[in-house]
């Protein structure tokens, strides 16, 4: 693919938690890079630190040390509205209390581009319509989000991120709550968005086979503090995936 750019880079990045008493190091000295036009899947067992890493890369949690560079600029140099034009984020347990319809929630993805009035122009409306169609939620667009299923809410949050139209999308377990058909369709859709719209999509998942089939690169949290990033065939060849997930098929 032409005009791919390195949208995400880390330099000697360490992530984890600090309290007054101790420091909990989750990943140490990470030097990662991801380009637009690629789907990267983060795999690892429960509790290894996937959400912690994704939250840190999205600027939602402080680093322990090292740098995160987004589109050539240190992440802390962006204000929140500027960063929202670079990174769209979908997290798990994203409590949404507002009384909104599905369409209104997807429209919120356009917030970084609208003026103070929040009024949508034609480009914004087109982006919203496209995202609703891609996620196949047009039929429930008028419904209040309190009256839709968990899976439908998950698709709505993904549609909001797509409408946000950022070069980098970070999604923590986007297939949670989805049935097997929708799990496949959503990852396939995200792969298509990455390749056809030249976005970098980084997501965590427990769908190992799907990640092997569809991702350009896998970030494999191998053991505490160790993260391997490579093309799926290399990680298969070296038995790395099997060593983390001995009970999966590949
Ligand atoms: N707010 C927090 N403060 C301190 N430690 C935390 C916090 N959130 C998570 N942790 C710890 O960090 C480690 C990694 O948790 P994290 O949620 O990032 O793992 P995960 O790989 O996303 O897990 P899962 O696959 O189960 O969702 C765990 O030991 C967890 O207990």
List keywords for this structure.
six-stranded mixed sheet; alpha/beta; nucleotide-binding; Rossmann fold; single chain
Give an overview in words.
This protein has 250 residues and is of the alpha/beta class. The chain has a domain at 1-86 and 197-250: 3-Layer(aba) Sandwich (Rossmann fold). Helices cover 32% and strands 26% of the residues. It has helices at 50-57, 80-83, 102-107, 122-134, 150-164, 180-196, 208-214, 232-237, 240-244, and strands at residues 6-18, 23-30, 33-35, 38-43, 65-70, 73-74, 87-90, 168-172, 200-204, 217-223, 226-230. The strands form two sheets. A six-stranded mixed beta sheet has the order 7-8-9-4-10-11, sandwiched between helices. Helix 4 packs antiparallel against helix 5 (150-164). It starts with 5 loop residues before the first strand and ends in a 6-residue tail after the last helix. The chain binds adenosine-5'-triphosphate (ATP). Residues 17, 24, 26, 44, 46-52 line the site of adenosine-5'-triphosphate.
Short description:
GO terms for molecular function: ATP binding; ATP hydrolysis activity. The protein has 250 residues and is an alpha/beta fold.
